[in-house]
Amino acid sequence: xxxxxxxxxxxxxxxxxxxxxxxxxxxxxxxxxxxxxxxxxxxxxxxxxxxxxxxxxxxxxxxxxxxxxxxxxxxxxxxxxxxxxxxxxxxxxxxxxxxxxxxxxxxxxxxxxxxxxxxxxxxxxxxxxxxxxxxxxxxxxxxxxxxxxxxxxxxxxxxx
Length: 160
Description:
The structure is a single chain. This protein is an alpha+beta fold and about 160 residues long. It has a domain at about 15-105: Beta-lactamase Inhibitory Protein, Chain:B, domain 1 (2-Layer Sandwich). The chain is built from five helices and four strands, in the order H-E-H-H-E-E-E-H-H. It has helices spanning about 1-10, 30-35, 45-50, 100-110, 125-130; strands at about 25, 65-70, 75-85, 90-95. It has a four-stranded antiparallel β-sheet with strand order 1-2-3-4. Strand 3 and strand 4 form a beta hairpin. The longest helix has 8 residues, at about 45-50. The radius of gyration is 32 Å and the shape is elongated. The mean pLDDT is about 80.
């Protein structure tokens, strides 16, 4: 029994990793969307640019919070926050983290690739001769399959 368990000790910890599901929560707000906001805009204009807020409290009716987080296996977790505050129906104040542009955000979602050795993509004359079309060792004793029919019966019954 100890011999079997001793073999398992040679397996590296990185061999078996638990699956971590992708978790996306909230509304992603890009730098471009943030720059489109201007104090003095009405709530409807802000909603058109940012979408429906993730958090809109009855106790803080003049504050909308947009929170976004994404966790993917092999990529660092990303969290972004943007808060807009209104006076009445007009945008008064904007508070946010440093937000990435849409292109920057898409670039952050890519898992880093490990650089491995590239295979040789060249064939020499000797390599090409090994894959010639007319190989002398081809088996010609097998019968040639019958040719396919030139037409097939209709899929639907013919109505008369």
